[in-house]
Specification:
The structure is a homodimer. Chain A has about 400 residues and is an alpha+beta fold. Helix content of chain A is about 30%, strand content about 30%. Chain A has helices spanning about 55-70, 85-105, 125-135, 140-150, 200-215, 250-270, 290-300, 300-310, 315-325, 355-365, 390-395; strands at about 1-5, 15-20, 35-50, 70-80, 110-120, 155-165, 170-175, 190-195, 220, 230-235, 275-285, 335-340, 340-345, 350, 365-370, 380-385. In chain A, the strands form two sheets. In chain A, strands 1, 2, 3, 4, 5, 6, 7, 8 and 10 form a nine-stranded mixed beta sheet that branches. Chain A has a seven-stranded mixed beta sheet with strand order 9-16-11-15-12-13-14, sandwiched between helices. At the A-B interface, helix 2, helix 8, helix 9, strand 14 and helix 11 of A face helix 2, helix 8, helix 9, strand 14 and helix 11 of B.
């Protein structure tokens, strides 16, 4: 079997998917902010949503569709989260779904809606109505759609892979947005995945859940879980492969994992104000949950994040974060590596060339932290970004 | 009964307490960094310590003394946390206790030791030895001691109150340090309290625990719990009041609460890079734990903190933080006030003059957030500070 990344691939690369976007004027800046993704045939759809108890109208709407498991289009906007907007918010979502259904000539209960942006303001529906009319759906519109969901993101996050295995040939693709309020819990910020593979619906939902746990649920930009988190996969089966299910789904899982890991890492790499990607590997933990807790505590620590921004090998903060993570650790058993330099072992600091490590941190765009807990066999990887002055600048004036 | 704040009062204001400090050279800057607090008679001692599983040698040492409940002196330094330093760290602590005991002519097992500063480096014991010799213990040395425990703090945090009730007259005082790695859990950063009141030992420990839960455990600067957190109260009984216990301890509790609340708020007010104090009141929650969870989630949110730094009434972030707090909330029942302006009610945004609120936020040094959850009767208050560029500057170069 092979999994191959397609150069310049995006969500319209799989067969039968069309997309388009427009500058509707929802964002204050003159940027593309409304997009539609459409499949020419009905899709099996799986999805995960934010666990935040404050949920946007679009999350409530789209959850119902995923519960049924069939969808054919997604309409998404940036600039307005349409969360905390009460009945009016729900009415607006219904109208967005209805207009999209009419445009695509499909049933209204097959349209997923997603919003992202400022919480507590209403959608400018006049602009949305005109925008939906203006959108051209094309087989190469994936990149425009990826742009339409960006808020403080600085680049589009998109990927597509060709997969070939005993089931046949098919394509998986995805796009995601960051770049703040990123600390997903059971779901994530916005992520839309498309595939032309023919897949069993239950298998699709279970596989997505498992993969999200190891990818999007292991990233953190700022510790805040969004009200609008949503990850959706649509599979239209147009590749004509033999149906993929639990028995023969190994390659599909691997390919989807690669796609999701790429997008998750792209989100933190583009974390608000980020200058470095932080990859934390926790090994030999008592159980999987402990490994996750420790890895996420480290990537979420403001003190670890600011130290890395300053290229400062202040490894004590890493152990302090592990110690408050809630996982069981024993100080004497820990071994800590920072960019492959062992800094702590057998309960005491190790001698190392601090100046050399500092220079190394300055040169590398990815900072690797590896912590051997040595009280079990489980491991987990988490990804985060540093905390810069630019993060504060971005977030102290976001609504203005 | 009366509780009266004493102008310029500090930990040596209660009868029989002496303190002093010196510039031992533990800090890289030429600042006072080693202090001793001493009571001329043996004290009942109560304390709480960090719940971080990585604990400094001083925490391990001092926990044992508090378990017995008697102490007569505290030696504390800043500039070196002596955490993650293995056997060597513990040997150093023992020597600090021994030298302090000799200087004060008391038993070595009556000396509490506290350190704060960079994790993972050893104490420069030559400097510590000389420093202990150099310290002069005087009845007015409280302020010097308060200075000796400061790290990134910009002002001393100290208070003393005179209390008069049916039990007699006595004094309670305290000092605390911040200003980073502040997200206490069951205990807090360093805080030392003194009183000349005559108090039942069990009552003292229980009262301290309860008060810390409502004060120090409700503050957050950056979400990180320190390895060296410690709060200690010493009572030497020299005021000669009738013994205070559960039956007659109402005024004592109230006075100690006032002292602890003052110090806790001073710590966040001086949070690293802070320009604003944030006070969050959560009312009508299902239970006390829910009220605490919501209040702390809001004060800990980077997005709320940066919005307040930018005087931005971006209240959606406050509701988003409440929604991910783990507490049970129902969006339609919530009422949210920002600096006394109602911004959200009955499931929808309220009309208000945004420019006026922005100006008001700019003018006030304390930002008040009040959230009525309306599904119960319990309430809690939490305190935090904004997140500024200065926080990042301070923490990206702390060890250097």
């Amino acid at each position: 079997m092979t999994i191959k990344i397609i150069e310049n691939g995006n969500i319209t690369t799989p067969a039968g998917f069309f997309a388009g976007a427009t500058t509707a004027g929802i964002k204050s800046k003159n940027l593309v902010d409304l997009g539609i993704l459409f499949s020419k045939s009905l899709c099996s759809a799986a999805g995960l949503f934010t666990t935040n108890l404050i949920k946007s109208a679009s999350v409530l709407h789209s959850q119902k569709i995923i519960n049924v498991g069939k969808a054919q289009a997604i309409i998404a906007n940036s600039g307005c989260a349409n969360a905390c907007t009460g009945m009016r918010g729900m009415v607006d979502i219904k109208e967005m779904a209805k207009l999209t259904a009419a445009k695509c000539s499909i049933q209204v209960n097959k349209v997923i809606v997603a919003n992202t942006g400022v919480i507590g303001i209403n959608l400018p529906m006049d602009k949305v109505r005109k925008g939906i009319k203006d959108i051209d759906l094309t087989a190469y519109g994936g990149k425009d759609f990826a742009r339409a969901i960006m808020t403080t993101d600085t680049f589009e996050k998109e990927i597509a892979v060709n997969v070939k295995d005993d089931n046949g040939k098919y394509t998986i693709a995805g796009t995601a947005k960051g770049a703040g309020m990123i600390h997903p819990d059971m779901a994530t910020m916005l992520c839309f995945l498309t595939t032309d593979a023919n897949i069993n619906q239950n298998f699709l939902q279970v596989t997505l859940k498992n993969i999200v746990d190891d990818t999007f649920n292991m990233i953190s930009v700022d510790g805040d879980t969004s009200t609008n988190d949503m990850i959706i996969i649509l599979s239209n089966g147009l590749a004509g492969n033999s149906v993929i299910s639990n028995k023969n789904g190994g390659t599909f899982k691997e390919a989807l994992l690669e796609v999701c890991k790429y997008l998750a890492k792209a989100v933190v790499r583009d974390g608000e104000g980020a200058t470095k990607l932080i990859e934390v590997l926790v090994e030999c933990a008592r159980n999987k949950n402990d490994a996750r807790l420790i890895a996420r505590a480290i990537t979420s620590s403001s003190l670890v994040k600011t130290a890395i921004y300053g290229n400062d090998p202040n490894w004590g903060r890493i152990l302090a974060a592990a110690g408050r993570s809630g996982a069981r650790i024993v100080e004497n058993k820990l071994i800590l590596y920072l960019n492959n330099q062992c800094v702590f072992k057998q309960g005491k600091p190790q001698d190392f060339d601090e100046e050399k490590l500092r220079t190394n941190m300055m040169e590398e765009s990815v900072i690797n932290i590896a912590l051997h807990v040595n009280n079990g066999r489980e491991k987990a990887t988490a990804w985060g970004c540093d905390l810069s002055k630019e993060y504060v600048t971005i977030n102290s004036a976001y609504t203005t």
